[in-house]
Amino acid sequence: MAAEQRLRSVNFWSGVVVLCLTIAGALVGIYQLNEVLTDEQQVPLAELSVQGELHYTASEEVRQALTAEPLGSFFTADVDDLRRRVEQLPWVQKVSIRKVWPDKLSVYVTEHKPVAMWNGDRLINQHQEVFRADITRADSSLPQLFGPENAVKETWEEFNRVQQMLEVNGFQIRALRLTERFAVNVVLAQGIEIKLGREATLERIKRFIDVFPSIVEHEKSKNNEIDTVDLRYDTGAAVAWREAKSES
């Protein structure tokens, strides 16, 4: 009986030792595997692919933004952090990043598409979002919009509404200003300023189109140039002139 109990005890403790060794071995294995997976030298992100229609941002700028700080390994690289690095570039609107086994980082960049200048020092993109970038790199023919900072959408919509009616009649807007009281002033490509006020802007534009031929005839007869056409009246228009530039 005593011998049987001793055998059971030996078997129990032998099992405990084996279990402990197994657990220790598994922990060591997990630790070693973790060391491998988190080691940039063992599983590095060796390939970097940059895609997208890039007009203002060079692929090398994207690479530099990503590698300004360590990327991490394939398993530890934080995709959200890497995305934020690229989105800090001035012309970048949105970034999509994914890992491709075994060592590739695929980056797709969507740029801002400027549609107008905003308040002289910034730009508006295709989603009516204001962004700051080097405006000298944008198309110089972009319209210049001025308005309250909280009325970007309203200013852009007013520009499109007025421009749509003017361009049918051969006019192009160079600049539009929306005041704090939402009054509208427009400067045409030929330098003529049109004051439309707050109300009935489309009706006033139609009036401008109707009276413009007569104004031009007067311009020719007086050898002056049209400076301002003020349409903030129930009928008619007030025209201010500037002296025509002499040709040398």
Automatic annotation (TrEMBL):
UniProt membrane topology term: Single-pass type II membrane protein
Chief location bin: membrane
Pfam families assigned to the protein according to its UniProt record, in alphabetical order: FtsQ_DivIB_C, POTRA_1
GO BP annotations listed: cell septum assembly; FtsZ-dependent cytokinesis
Subcellular location, record wording: Cell inner membrane; Membrane
Bilayer-crossing regions: 12-33
Residues in POTRA domain copies: 43-112
GO CC term (a single one): cell division site
Keywords attached to this entry: Cell cycle, Cell division, Cell inner membrane, Cell membrane, Membrane, Transmembrane, Transmembrane helix
Domain of life of the organism encoding this protein: Bacteria
Protein family: Belongs to the FtsQ/DivIB family. FtsQ subfamily.
Record-linked PANTHER family: CELL DIVISION PROTEIN FTSQ (PTHR35851:SF1)
Binding partners and assembly: Part of a complex composed of FtsB, FtsL and FtsQ.
Function: Essential cell division protein. May link together the upstream cell division proteins, which are predominantly cytoplasmic, with the downstream cell division proteins, which are predominantly periplasmic. May control correct divisome assembly.
HAMAP family: FtsQ_subfam (MF_00911)
Record-given protein name: Cell division protein FtsQ
Organism name: Idiomarina rhizosphaerae
